[in-house]
Amino acid sequence: MPFVLYLLGLAVFAQATSEFMLSGLGPDIAHDLGVSIPTAGWLTSAFALGMIAGAPAIAVLGARWPRRRTLLVTLSVFLAVHVVGALTTSFTVLLITRVLAALANAGFLAVALATATSLVRPDAKGRATSVLLGGTTLACIVGVPAGALLGSALGWRSAFWAVAIISLPALAAILRSVPARGSGPVTMRLGIRPRLVVLLLLGAFVNGATFCSFTYLAPIVTDVTGLGVGWVPLVLALFGLGSFAGVTVAGRYADRGDHLLVLVASGILLLGWCAFALTAAHVVPTVVLAFLQGGLSFAVGSTLIAYALYAGAESPVLTGGLATAALNVGAAAGPVLGGLAIGAVGFRGPLWVSAALVGTALCVAAGSVRLVDREGPG
């Protein structure tokens, strides 16, 4: 893989850290800016909505630009608004910067996916995709805990400064290594592509299942498994390590177009969520399944996105935007559904919802198997 892909992955790492780190910084932000904790929660919602709306919109607006220019503009905006966020004393200004950061993040990821697949062989889209999405998994393992530690030691603003600083090497790499003119097709006319729609829908369901349970893993560990709060970082880290391993392995298999393997992995993922829900009161299954479910979730999800990029190869920027939006629809909807399940059946609820979402994805895939099976590498 070209080294520039790993630096693009570093930018994705910074952006994913920014997206998730507020879960540990919210109370400090609320106290410093004089708002309630629920009001501070708007910062997370604003980012999620910006990602969903921004990915296809920025992809369309920037499709006629050279990809290097679009990457530079979106990453520069992302960096700049974090500097503003680190300096502001106004919650309103901070809220606006979160929306702008999400729009820039969404546009960057959409174009980065297209750029990554254009810098490798036509049959290596899966591996290129795994490098970028690996940045998201590393954010779960390293970025979010580090942001929380940095925030507790030096204040929440230091985490914003850190995200801006981490983005700088990627800016330099884009200037040096991404071609000034985009390569590959630039058409925005995808038309009605049932295969692509199905793959994006499956990606949204699987990602929804992933973040439904990941969001509430801490109370599952403490209230269901009965472990102390000191175990929470360990279990979260195991989930993150599993997700990184899953993305890495999936990158090697996604390019083979073995849809049967994906269906089998999805079936195991479904069984895993059911097993997790049934055995969450026991320590060993909880620890083991946190790692396994993280790995399977991201392996299946990243493979589906790679297949979508193959399916929409004639318009990679727009397809990248739609893929980014699909992932974030799942990431936004999953925690909401999990929260409703907690209110109805307790903290095992998100695990059952994750199982239901993966089961729904399998039903959709089974009903559309002819459409999906016709799409693959090359």
Question: Explain this structure to me?
Answer:
It is a single chain. This protein has 378 residues and is an all-alpha fold. 83% of the residues lie in helices and 0% in strands. It is built from 16 helices and no strands. α7 packs antiparallel against α8 (156-177) and α7 (125-154) runs antiparallel to α11 (232-254). Mean pLDDT is 83; it is low at 183-187.
Key structural traits:
single chain; 378 residues; mainly alpha; 83% helix; globular
Summarize the structure.
The chain contains 16 helices and no strands. By secondary structure, it is mainly alpha-helical.
Biggest sheet descriptor: none
Low-confidence sequence ranges: 183-187
Number of strands: 0
End-to-end separation in angstroms reads 18 Å
- Give the proportion of residues in helices: over 70%
Write the layout of secondary structure elements.
Blueprint: H1 3-20, H2 22-33, H3 37-40, H4 42-62, H5 67-87, H6 91-118, H7 125-154, H8 156-177, H9 194-215, H10 217-224, H11 232-254, H12 259-279, H13 283-311, H14 316-345, H15 349-367, H16 369-373
Helix pairs in contact: 1-6, 1-7, 1-8, 2-7, 4-6, 4-14, 5-6, 5-8, 6-7, 6-14, 7-8, 7-11, 7-13, 9-13, 9-14, 9-15, 10-11, 11-13, 12-13, 12-15, 14-15
